[in-house]
Amino acid sequence: NVGDSVQITKIEFHGREIQFDINGGPKGHTSWRQRIHLEGGLGLPVSTSTTTTPQDTPVVVQKGGATIFLDFDGAVPDMTADQLKGYLARVLDFSKQRSAAVAWVDSLPAPVREAIAAKRAEVGMDHDEVTAAMGRPERKVRERDADGNDSEDWIYGTPPAKTIFVTFQGDKVVKVTQYP
């Protein structure tokens, strides 16, 4: 739909074309309506100049995703990212150059955004926020205390170097300990 945010989830090179899967690409063929192949008629300009400009941009529309093919007259030419973006701009709007991750971080409270920017974990953060701030842990240790409460320690670093323990109960950080 016009105005929806999309992500390019897969890029494949096939001889004279480049295939882009959008939002996961096609989800199988269960009815003839999901196998419609659109060419031209999309209000797209048709190439009339050199052999390195893609012809009209066909789009295979599927429920939940789509596939865009850039078809060249010969082999896929060498091009810069800006040139490729220019070809895709015929069907995709690049005016909002924000990834889903950037939009997600902007939706978080200010203290959490600051912690992610500083690459540190703080009490109250969840698993996704800690991963955004510090990356994946080198080790995870799960324990159950005498009261039956489950906890999970994410361990960053190895002794004798700086080591950070991030302790979760459920999905929230309850303690952050740094040695030395």
Summary, kept brief:
The protein has 180 residues and is α+β, with helices and mostly antiparallel strands.
Give a description of the structure.
With 180 residues, the chain is an alpha+beta fold. The chain folds into two domains: 8-97, no CATH class; 101-179, Beta-lactamase Inhibitory Protein, Chain:B, domain 1 (2-Layer Sandwich). 17% of the residues lie in helices and 30% in strands. The chain has helices at 81-88, 100-106, 110-117, 127-134, and strands spanning 8-14, 17-22, 37-38, 59-62, 65-71, 139-144, 150-156, 163-169, 172-179. Strands 1-2-5-4-3 form a five-stranded antiparallel beta sheet, with no helix packed on it. A four-stranded antiparallel beta sheet has the order 6-7-8-9, with no helix packed on it. The longest helix is centred in the middle third of the chain and has 8 residues, at 81-88. The model is unreliable at 30-53 (pLDDT under 50).
Question: Descriptors for this entry?
Answer:
9 strands, alpha+beta, 2 domains, Beta-lactamase Inhibitory Protein, Chain:B, domain 1, 180 residues, 4-stranded antiparallel β-sheet, 4 helices, 5-stranded antiparallel β-sheet
Q: Would you list the SSEs in sequence order as H and E?
A: EEEEEHHHHEEEE
Strand order of the largest sheet: 1-2-5-4-3
Question: Would you tell me the overall average pLDDT?
Answer: 79
Shape: elongated
- What is the end-to-end distance? 53 Å
Strand content: 25-35%
Number of domains: 2
Task: Give me the Rg, rounded.
Answer: 24 Å
